[in-house]
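Intended use. Records like the one below are meant for learning the mapping from a protein sequence to its folded structure. Do not use them to infer anything beyond what is encoded.
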Amino acid sequence: MTVPRVTPTGSQTVGPFFHIGMAASPGHSLVAAEVPGTRIAVRGRVIDGNGEGVPDAVLEIWQADAGGDYPGAGSRFRGFGRIYTGAAGVFDFTTIKPGRVPGSGSTPQAPHLVLHVFMRGLLRHLTTRLYFSDEPSNNEDAVLQLVDATRRPTLIARHVPSAGAVYEWNIILQGADETVFLEY
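Structure written out for the chain above:
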């Protein structure tokens, strides 16, 4: 008896089971109530190359605290969170707006979040940054300045003044408005 050879397609390299081990969400708040800083909300979608939302992506968020310090021993601030997308690729989370962290030379980096995107079909996670549209120090950020000016908007979350401290930002995986992804 001859057994047919079955070759997985590109979308099955990680398997259709990616969400199983990540189904339990720890919540949408990345910081405890007692951590000082300005609370902000970030909302958006993870969108694939066909313009459809990715319903089972995982976003890991890394950041400094409001003073621009990364977590250390005894810190109440973790500087890390994991958020899962829902239907239509929607995500939302609350955190504190990070402070400026040391950059190359003597110029501090603009406040930003570092995000890793995990999802089915990706053998390596994607890394990007989220900057804030109402942050004047964006013009001084060495990493942001390395990105072509026409592509920088893909890294900048838009402040929604009518909603308070809310920022909107989409992660677009492919296409004309693809988010800039970084290699470290």
